[in-house]
């Protein structure tokens, strides 16, 4: 069983007294069902699980009155072998977007407050099918992503005290021993070749065979094609698929990583493809980094929504769009210069997104100043520069000299920890997990 960080957050929710119904959101195949099921089995006497996609007939329970006593009676008749007791039973409603009446019932579960109810489902159908809106004020949300690098380290057997040691060095801004740094960079390259989809990680842990890893990544990408065809409205189906599968070209074949509709199709434009990109981000299949026209706190106030970069929500899906030789180049650190910049930028986008950041970047064509990411950390604006090798970050250094109000910046490289006079903290790429 792969260890997931979300278990701690689920336990924190369980231990609250006046809690709301919990909705765990996230992309398909990121491990939501497995994590919730394991949490329930470890912390409750019984778990009643309904998957509305696998068992659409269970929607009958929610077809009549939605008061809690009526629903509990329905659950007891359908699951006579299960005990249903307040505080002892977890009610798990999976793929809830398939049952609008179950969505409506969440208000009444929260108002009653006797039973612990967790819901899960991909975002694919919630906004684009017939499902009702979640009752505002009666639910709380817990986003879940594919596995991050730290969870991957758990999976491959790196001890938590070693991860704590690395975190201590990060906090103290002191270098780690070269042998440790080399091994962690090796693991980080493997992680970015494998990605964080639990099924893929488990296959790598079991076999260490990148051919098997590649096969599962391709199966998941095929599943995404089917999901787009099934869930996307007819006006965006084909275009959403074209936009998603253009990402390897957008990020790995161009020096300019701005998402360009002309890369999707010759003559492509905003009017034709904008709604398709919005569908992909709304479904949590892709994530935008939006350009800002000013480097300042609260970057969302300075967004240029017409200019953005688009990333997969798991780096393994981007890698899976290329043939297996690309994985070899990632692992062996032999990426071409044409691909290296875009790939490591996408890898850090993966880390930042999974850590909960909104993504923004700055680029000024006149001054040639560019910052790959601007994040708000501890109440301050923090620029983040990404270098796949060990080259200097001249633009970032000049920025810090001219903007003394910025407390510090991060430069992520294939190197070790250090700090310069102009407040630029150099970190090895893998320490993006601590940001």
Could you characterize what this model shows?
There is one protein chain. The protein is an alpha/beta fold and 435 residues long. 43% of the residues lie in helices and 18% in strands. The chain has helices at 6-14, 32-43, 68-78, 100-112, 149-155, 160-172, 178-194, 198-207, 210-231, 237-244, 247-252, 261-264, 270-282, 315-320, 324-331, 337-354, 394-402; strands spanning 21-25, 46-51, 89-94, 116-121, 139-143, 286-292, 303-312, 359-364, 369-371, 373-377, 380-386, 409-413, 418-419, 424-428. The longest helix is centred in the middle third of the chain and has 22 residues, at 210-231. The chain is globular and about 70 Å long. The two termini are 26 Å apart. The model is unreliable at 126-132 (pLDDT under 50).
List its salient traits.
alpha/beta; Rossmann fold; five-stranded parallel β-sheet; 435 residues; 43% helix; 2 domains; single chain; globular; 17 helices
In short:
The chain is of the alpha/beta class and 435 residues long. Helices cover 43% and strands 18% of the residues. The chain has helices at residues 6-14, 32-43, 68-78, 100-112, 149-155, 160-172, 178-194, 198-207, 210-231, 237-244, 247-252, 261-264, 270-282, 315-320, 324-331, 337-354, 394-402, and strands spanning 21-25, 46-51, 89-94, 116-121, 139-143, 286-292, 303-312, 359-364, 369-371, 373-377, 380-386, 409-413, 418-419, 424-428.
């Amino acid at each position: 069983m792969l260890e997931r960080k979300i278990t701690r957050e689920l336990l924190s929710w369980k231990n609250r007294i006046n809690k709301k119904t919990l909705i765990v959101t996230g992309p398909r195949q990121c491990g939501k069902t497995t994590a919730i099921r394991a949490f329930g089995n470890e912390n409750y006497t019984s778990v009643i699980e309904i998957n509305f996609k696998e068992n659409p007939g269970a929607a009958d329970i929610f077809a009549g009155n939605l008061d809690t006593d009526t629903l509990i009676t329905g659950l007891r008749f359908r699951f006579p072998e299960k005990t249903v007791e307040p505080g002892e039973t977890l009610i798990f409603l999976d793929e809830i977007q398939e049952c609008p009446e179950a969505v409506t019932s969440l208000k009444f579960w929260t108002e009653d407050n006797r039973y612990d109810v967790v819901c899960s489902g991909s975002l694919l159908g919630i906004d684009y099918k017939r499902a009702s809106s979640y009752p505002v004020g009666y639910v709380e949300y817990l986003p879940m992503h594919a596995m991050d690098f730290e969870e991957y380290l758990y999976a491959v057997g790196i001890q938590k005290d070693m991860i704590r040691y690395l975190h201590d060095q990060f906090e103290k801004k002191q270098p780690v021993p070269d042998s440790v740094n080399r091994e962690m960079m090796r693991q980080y390259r493997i992680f970015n070749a494998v990605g964080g989809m639990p099924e893929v990680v488990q296959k790598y842990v079991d076999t260490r065979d990148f051919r098997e890893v590649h096969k599962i990544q391709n199966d998941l990408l095929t599943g995404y094609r089917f999901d787009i065809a099934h869930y996307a409205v007819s006006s965006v189906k084909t275009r959403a698929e074209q936009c998603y599968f253009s990402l390897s070209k957008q990020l790995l074949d161009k020096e300019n990583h701005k998402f360009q509709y002309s890369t999707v199709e010759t003559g492509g434009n905003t009017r034709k493809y904008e709604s398709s990109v919005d569908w992909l981000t709304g479904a949590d299949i892709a994530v935008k980094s939006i350009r800002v026209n000013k480097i300042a706190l609260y970057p969302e106030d300075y967004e240029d929504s017409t200019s953005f970069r688009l990333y997969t929500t798991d780096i393994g899906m981007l890698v899976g769009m290329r043939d297996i030789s690309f994985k070899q180049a990632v692992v062996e650190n032999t990426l071409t210069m044409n691909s290296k910049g875009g790939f490591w930028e996408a890898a850090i986008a993966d880390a930042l997104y999974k850590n909960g950041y909104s993504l923004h970047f700055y680029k000024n064509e006149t001054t040639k100043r560019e910052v790959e990411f601007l994040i708000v950390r501890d109440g301050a604006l923090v620029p983040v520069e990404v270098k796949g090798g060990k080259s200097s970050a001249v633009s970032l250094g000049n920025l810090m000299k001219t903007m003394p109000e910025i407390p510090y910046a991060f430069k992520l490289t294939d190197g070790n920890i250090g700090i310069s006079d102009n407040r630029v903290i150099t970190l090895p790429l893998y320490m993006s997990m601590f940001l």
